[in-house]
Amino acid sequence: MSVLVRIWDVPTRLFHWSLVVLFCAMWFTGTQGGEWLQYHIWAGYGIATLVLFRLIWGLLGSQTSRFTFFIRGPRAIIGYLRGTLPEEQVPGHNPLGALMVLLMLALLATQITLGFFAADVDSYSYDGPLAHLIDSDLAESITGWHKLLFNVLLGAVGLHLSAIAFYALARKRNLVRPMLTGDQRFEREVGKLEFIPTVIAMVTLVVSAGAIYTLVTRL
Questions:
Q1: How many domains is the chain built from?
Q2: pTM to 2 decimal places
Q3: CB within 10 Å: which end of the chain, N or C, has fewer?
Q4: Does residue 130 contact residue 216 with C-beta atoms inside 8 Å?
């Protein structure tokens, strides 16, 4: 008999869907240009806050959100691919999903950093908040890298969505529902998982927002 297990806490789920919304907003406002770039910058601040929050939450958050819990070595990855590593032993992110999490966080962190130093090469009215710290030619070059990396990000998102579709069609495994409800069904019992109080996540979010605000206003 299958069992329903809580694997995702509220902070992790809110992070995920907030990131989806802000990523779409950043995409739209970035392609519009002009005065939309101001909204693009604000969306970037939001994503920067979320990424910093997730990095901290990956260290002190709930068990399934911690990097030390879901990042596994080559042996676990091979075992998962061969089907010898049961799902109940890797609740939350499976070994392949863990690699995608790391890839997305690395790409987003790099994209944010480039955006902070990017220049509005059309009007120079909406430069990144730290563009004044570097030479204008370098800022323009960084803008090109910022645009190029966004295409890489879109490719990573496409890969992520393809994996979700594969699990749904080939393995009959719905990966979207658990990120909405927090619960996932397993064929066997899963060991007790540790969840951190939501108030800790709220403090972490405030600290992250304060750090980003300080960075973009004090330098």
A1: 1
A2: 0.95
A3: N
A4: yes
